[in-house]
Amino acid sequence: MMTPQHTQTSETVDAAKPDAQCLSPNPSTAPQPSDENPDSSPHYRAIQTFMKRKTHVGKKAEAGLQSDFAHFFVQPNLDAIQAMDIGGITNLRELFSNPDAPLTFEIGFGMGTSLVEMAKNDPTRNFVGIEVHEAGLGNCAFLAGELGLNNLKLISGDAIALMQQLPAAHIDTLQLYFPDPWQKKRHYKRRFVSADRMRVVERVLKKGGMFHAATDWEHYAHWMIEVMDSLTAFANVEGKNSEGIGNFLPRPDFRPLTKFEKRGMEEGRAIYDIMYRKV
Fold it and tell me: Which CATH number characterizes residue 170's domain?
């Protein structure tokens, strides 16, 4: 599969500034959100990057939320899972028997098929996934239980809020696969990849740690490149093109092909991977 090319747009984003504008391949501007300094205003309310939709919980997912699979969840019970209560979760490494193993943190793992496969394929690495939908949480736990995995833990909750509780330089790799692209202009502020949110990611990543994202939404793909290129703490692992813009990553073999991605490819949609290293 050919790697999508990132071409220069007529304007670029200065993503380091909260009021910066981003121009997409289909020109439309949008302000970057700011989640910084919540204590500076008594009326502060963080902008969520997700919307918890009511989803059907199938038989596997329902089973995965029962006590037989409770050891995969960091939260102590179903009430805490449903409430997305992340209170007291301040160290992900301590969840595993080998806390010194490389740690991968995946945000929004969907139904968990690719996360489980990655954990199965690399038993020397620890994996933590965070998701807001019970169907995905339960299904992922069920699949992990079928394989008897001991290097995977699951959390229900807001990823940004959780990362703000974690120690600095805590995570080796952060994965963000097919996040909500928030297609409407008025919702761009909800996109996970923004300058402010990536500074939260920067803090929890180790030096040399990786941020890897994938999307099938072209506008968001270019948006992510522009935001990441603007942050001096990150370097594109594929380098930059002749116009000084970060390159897309050829699809890596270690990222499992999901049904969603396969369907998109069959329908002719390009898949865009980006990877940046914390310097």
Answer: 3.40.50.150
